[in-house]
C-alpha cells in the first residue's frame, strides 16, 4: 500500500472516530437498544418483564413496533458494570452475555442462509422488500407534492413564510416521538444520550433545517427549471459521501439505474421548458442558483447522516431529537428572517387549513423516510423522490390547470425503469445490509427493515436461533 493511500485512510479513520462511524468493540455492538445500567433497572424492570410475558418471548425484548433486540438486563451480580465514553456496557460479563452471543450467532446464521440462496439477476425484484420500497418511495413523493401544493397556495395569498411554516412539523415530531423515547429510556438515560450524542443530532437537525430553507428560498430568485436541475447535485452528494464516508461500493448496474432516473428527470425538465412552465427568468438567477446548490448539498449530507443514524439507533430516538433541535433552530431562524413576512401575510381559516395540511404531510414524510433508508439507502431515497415532479404535474392539471406534455409519461416510466435496474444485482438483501455495520451487522440495531432483523427472523424460521421462539 502506498504512503498516500495510508495517509488518506488515516484521515478517514480520524473522521470516523470523531463521528463514531468506525468499528466498535464487542461491548458496543448493541448500541442504545440493549444498554441498561443499574440506575435504569428500577424504571424499566416492570415494563420489560410485562412486555416479555405478554409476548411469550423471554429472550427478545421489543422496544417499539419494528424495534426488537435480544437483550439481557443486569442482575444484582453485575453491579460492577460500568459505562464507557460511548455509553455502552464495558464489563466482560455483559458484553459476552449468553443472550448477546445467541443474538450474534442467530444473525450470522440468518445472513448465511439468506446470502446462500440460489439467486438470479432478477431475484430481488421478486421480493416483498423491493415493492415495499417502490410503494414507500411513491408515498414520499406524494407527500412532497402535497407540501409543494400547500406552499403554492400560501404564496398565492402573499403568505411567504418558509421557516415558520416548517416549524410546526418539527413540533409535531416532538409531540409524537419524544414521549415514546422517554417511555423506553427514562429521563436519566435520555439525558445521558443528550450529553453524549446531542451534538450529533444538532448537526443532523441543522443540515435538515437549512436544506429545507435554502431550497425554498431559491425558488424566489431563480426559475423552477434551474432549481430542479441543481437539485440533481443532492444525488451526487449522496453517492460521493456514501462512497468515501460510509464505504459503500456501488455496482455498475446501480450507477446505470441512477443515470436512467436522472435521464427521466431530464425529460421532465425539458418538457417544462418546452411548455414554458419553468417560470421564465427569475429576479436574480445567480443568487437563486447558488441557494439551490447550497440547499441540495445540505439535503444530500443530511440524508446520508440520517441513514447512518437509523441503521444504528431506534427510529423514535432519531426522530425525537430531530424534532427537538429542529424546533430550536427553525424557531430562531423564523424569528430572524420571517418577521417582516408576517406584516403583509394573509391570516384566515383557509390559510390555517393549508398550514395544517402542509404540517401533516411533512410529518408523515419524516416519519416514513427512515424505513426506506433502512430497507434501501440514501441514494434510493433521493432517486425515488424524482417521481415527485410527475405527481406534481398531475396535481397541477387538476388544481392549477396545467397542460401535460407527451414527454411526462415517458419520463415517469424511465425513472421507474431506473429504479428496477438499480436493484438488478442478485442480492436478496438489497441495500439493507450496510457495510459500515460489519459483516454480521453487529453494530446495527435490529429494527424494522434492517438486514439484522431479517437475519434473526430467518434464523428462527430455520430453527437456528438457539431455541428462541417466534419472530422479532
Automatic annotation (TrEMBL):
Ranges where the record places region Disordered: 22-65, 80-99
Gene Ontology cellular component terms for the protein in this record: membrane
Chief place where the protein resides: membrane
Any one Gene Ontology molecular-function term assigned to this protein's record: transmembrane transporter activity
Bias kind Polar residues: ranges: 24-35
Alphabetic keyword roster: Membrane, Transmembrane, Transmembrane helix, Transport
InterPro entries: EmrE-like (IPR037185), SLC35_F1/F2/F6 (IPR009262), SLC35F_Transporter (IPR052221)
Protein name: Solute carrier family 35 member F1
